[in-house]
Amino acid sequence: MVAAMTQPRRRLFAGARVRDLRARLSLAQAAMAQRLGVSVSYLSQIENNERPLTPPVLIALAREFPQEWGDVGEDHSVADLVRAIEAGTDSSIAGARVDEDAVRRGVEKHPALTRRMIAIHDAWRRSQAQLRVLDDKVESGAGGGGALPWEEVRDWYQAEGNYIDAIDRAAESLADEFDGPHPIEDRLRGWHGVRIADARDDDLRLSRYDADSRRLIVSGVLPPESRAFLLAHRLAVLEFGNEMRAVSEASGLASPAARELLSLGLANYAAGALLMPYTRFRAAALDVRHDIDRLRQRFGASFEQACHRLSTLQRPGAQGTPFFFCRVDMAGNITKRHSATRLEFARFGGACPLWVVHEAVAIPDRILVQLAEMPDDVRYVVMAKGLVKPSASYQRPPRRYAVAIGCEESHAPAFVYADGLRTGGVATPIGTSCRICPRADCDQRAFPPAAGEIRIDPNVRAPVPYSI
């Protein structure tokens, strides 16, 4: 590695790739230059292949665009340097951080020691992941029987990046053929012979389908966007059965119940892709800076459906802005979650009470925003909104919950909800859950971290009766 760092390198020109990346993310040159820490004129010279990519610029690309910039060129020492800087500056580890210049000198002069530091940091990250699994088991009361079916499916979606290419492309292809004011309903009737009726009785089911008579009965009390989603769901089952079967068979899920849940989830995924086709929805989202209300009106979707669709825009070569998305109920349980960012969710409830989504549950139809900072110093712009789904009967209370969507602070210019925040200013310090949160000065802590020791001073009274 020393030779790679000290001997002359073959200069790397990748102007077209940098320019294509900027175009895919709809970033102006000024915004891209700011994120890379270079001038606009310098970036322009890079894009025109008048200047090569230097190690500092490669590092900035790898750090700012980890998903889109999968590698950092042919110089492997640059990749090692990026990992070493992450290890040396990880703020979630106690103690003073290592200066980036010192890390660079270490990579050049002490490569074996640097590689050891990287390995130790990787091992520490794995131990934190194992601690989260332990926290899951404690929080859920799970025994030794393995994951529950819905947990298997949830983790499968997370591993897939919440993007299912075969189904998404099939749905987009079909949506491109649609014409007329009611294309999904027309397709169900004309191509599949489905008779559609609205239920006017007190049946509380959202829909029911009789395969023998090809009769689909949909609740008559649903809002238009919910009715459209149920029709799209039934069309997806009829149109994309082969694609969904192939995905389910290749999923590796252990239990039959998990595979059945996955099939249902894939039909829901396809319904969203039919209502909000990938290319058009991504272009519209970038155009309106991810304004959820404008998107849902343009595509005839609900607020929650539009939020969830934004979290699925991870098509290789055409990624959208990376968002996390979740839904939280009145008790604080996270009933839906996905993250295309570095944010880790509490998997079985117990999410940080300082997170704005909990406040949003109690305030329906009002949008709240927050600049939040995790223990690893990554900051997020968060938008949360409380929603109420009315029931069909006085005897059944309406469903109340909140949805939240957010992106890392570096993407704030592309997120309209960041306009009311002073990005770069003071952020609310939040964590994943109290059992694994390292913050020692949180007045909202419910219990100490699982891996920490507590100290109790009977002569000191504080909001939390112990120190860490």
Task: List the main descriptive attributes of the protein structure presented here.
single chain; 468 residues; alpha+beta; 6-stranded mixed sheet; 3-stranded mixed sheet; 18 helices; 44% helix
Question: Quick recap of the structure?
Answer:
The chain has 468 residues and is of the alpha+beta class. The protein is 44% helix and 12% strand.
Q: Which residues sit in consecutive blocks of at least 5 with pLDDT less than 50? A: 1-9, 71-76
**Total helical segments:** 18
Succession of helices and strands? HHHHHHHHHHHEEEHHHHHHEEHEEEE
Helix content: 40-55%
C-alpha geometry: globular
Rounded to the nearest angstrom, the distance between the terminal CA atoms is 41 Å
User: Mind telling me the C-alpha Rg?
Assistant: 25 Å
Q: How would you sum up the major sheet?
A: 6 strands, mixed
Report the average pLDDT across residues: 83
Beta fraction: 5-15%
Largest beta sheet: what is the strand line-up? Answer: 5-4-8-7-6-9
Number of strands: 9
Secondary structure category: alpha+beta
Describe the structure.
By secondary structure, the chain is an alpha+beta fold. It is 44% helix and 12% strand. The chain contains 18 helices and 9 strands. It has helices spanning 2-6, 15-24, 29-36, 40-47, 55-64, 76-89, 100-109, 111-140, 149-159, 165-175, 183-192, 224-239, 241-249, 256-275, 278-287, 292-299, 303-310, 356-361; strands at 195-199, 207-210, 215-219, 324-329, 334-339, 367-373, 379-389, 399-408, 428-429. Strand 6 and strand 7 form a beta hairpin. Helix 5 (55-64) packs across helix 6 (76-89) and helix 16 packs across helix 17 (303-310). The model is unreliable at 1-9 and 71-76 (pLDDT under 50).
